[in-house]
């Protein structure tokens, strides 16, 4: 599946760009797209910007135009991606996928931060243990009222009736009463033991680990005009620029390429070419200028040069620069797609692939 990135400056203030996938037979309703940059550790775009992990972004609008699926985004995507950044896109539960180099697209308005209630990465707080209800004391034991003994009148003196034995229930009554009292006492003790208050241990929550503050290295000396982008163009001798370290040349070049005017762009390109002879990041930055996928008309270079971009990507990948191999693979895939067609563009693509020794 192919993917390209289209700027949409004329639609409205909310939509700024579209990720175009082809060929697609049916557009998904509400896809979640995982947008990653392979050259960074926190390389997944989320609702708060680049992060280590994310559930993906949902497009604001999905359109099916012929065999192309247009997934349209606003500043939640364009605000965080800089020109020349290689990105890979994969639908979380679908088939949409592709890679491309981010072109020159207006960033749009700065997106508002989501509320904590809506934030998918909000840390859950421990729920306090429920407090058990107070245990009511058992009701006091009430002794049964004493049983009065029957009064036996003496027999008449002359007539003495025969003695009668006491009834059996009168003999068993004291023993039954004692047994009932023992059973009641045992039941009350068992009820108290079952429902006694038990102290619930409170879980100890470890305090959050606070990352140490990032110490910013000391700024470069402001007194040297050759180390400042604002003064290097007017106050630095050209022979001094050739002796600067390649990392300083690359930093100055990237700053000059963001300025307007041919003098700044020309000097930035010259510094980048000099640094690319021995510096991997400079090779990567120069390759993006020549890559047709990230080429910007009116910029430092007059025309795209895919053959030069392939060589620079190869050198950067040999220096183990993150993202270089992926960017070169994406450029080769685009050239093979062009070479499969007809016309002058297809002939040029076949020539570039043949000269690079790519089948």
Structure write-up:
The structure is a single chain. By secondary structure, the chain is an alpha+beta fold. Among the domains are: 2-101, Immunoglobulin-like (Sandwich), CATH 2.60.40; 225-352. It has helices at 75-78, 168-194, 229-235, 238-241, 246-257, 262-275, 280-290, 306-318, 324-339, 344-355; strands at 2-7, 17-22, 33-36, 44-46, 49-51, 61-65, 68-73, 86-91, 97-101. The longest helix is centred in the middle third of the chain and has 27 residues, at 168-194. The two termini are 20 Å apart. Residues 116-131 and 200-221 have low confidence and may be disordered.
Keywords:
alpha+beta, 10 helices, three-stranded antiparallel beta sheet, elongated, 359 residues, four-stranded antiparallel beta sheet, Immunoglobulin-like
Largest sheet: 4 strands, antiparallel
| Percent of residues in helices | 25-40%
The arrangement of helices and strands along the chain is EEEEEEEHEEHHHHHHHHH
Can you count the beta strands?
9
Give the low-confidence spans: 116-131, 200-221
Give the amount of beta strand, in percent. 5-15%
Strand order of the largest sheet: 1-2-7-6
Rg from alpha-carbon coordinates: 42 Å
From the helix content, strand content and strand pairing, which structural class follows?
Answer: alpha+beta
The separation of the N and C termini measures 20 Å
């Amino acid at each position: 599946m192919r993917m390209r990135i289209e700027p949409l400056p004329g639609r409205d203030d909310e939509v700024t760009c579209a990720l175009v996938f082809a060929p697609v037979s049916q557009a998904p309703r509400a896809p979640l797209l995982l947008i990653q940059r392979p050259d960074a550790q926190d390389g997944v775009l989320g609702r708060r910007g680049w992060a280590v992990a994310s559930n993906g972004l949902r497009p604001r609008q999905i359109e099916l135009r012929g065999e192309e699926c247009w997934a349209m985004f606003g500043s939640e995507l364009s605000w965080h991606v800089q020109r020349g950044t290689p990105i890979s896109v994969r639908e979380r539960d679908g088939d949409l996928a592709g890679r491309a180099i981010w072109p020159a697209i207006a960033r749009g308005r700065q997106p508002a931060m989501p509320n904590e209630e809506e934030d998918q990465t909000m840390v859950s707080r421990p729920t306090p243990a429920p407090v058990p209800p107070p245990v009511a004391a058992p009701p006091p034991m009430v002794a049964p009222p004493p049983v009065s003994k029957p009064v036996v009148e003496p027999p008449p003196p002359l007539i003495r009736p025969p003695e009668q034995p006491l009834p059996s229930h009168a003999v068993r009554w004291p023993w039954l009463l004692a047994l009932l009292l023992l059973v009641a006492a045992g039941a009350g003790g068992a009820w108290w033991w079952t429902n006694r208050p038990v102290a619930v241990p409170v879980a100890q929550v470890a305090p959050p680990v606070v990352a140490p503050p990032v110490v910013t290295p000391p700024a470069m000396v402001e007194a040297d005009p050759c180390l400042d982008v604002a003064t290097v163009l007017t106050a630095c001798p050209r022979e001094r620029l050739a002796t600067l370290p390649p990392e300083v040349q690359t930093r100055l070049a990237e700053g000059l390429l963001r300025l307007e005017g041919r003098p700044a762009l020309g000097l930035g390109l010259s510094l980048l070419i000099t640094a690319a002879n021995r510096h991997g990041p400079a090779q990567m930055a120069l390759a993006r200028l020549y890559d047709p996928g990230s080429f910007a008309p009116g910029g430092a270079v007059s025309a795209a040069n895919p053959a030069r971009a392939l060589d620079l990507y190869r050198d950067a990948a040999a220096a183990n620069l993150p993202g270089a191999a992926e960017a070169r693979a994406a450029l080769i895939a685009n050239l093979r797609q062009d070479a499969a067609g007809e016309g002058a563009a297809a002939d040029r693509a076949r020539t570039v692939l043949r000269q690079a020794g790519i089948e």
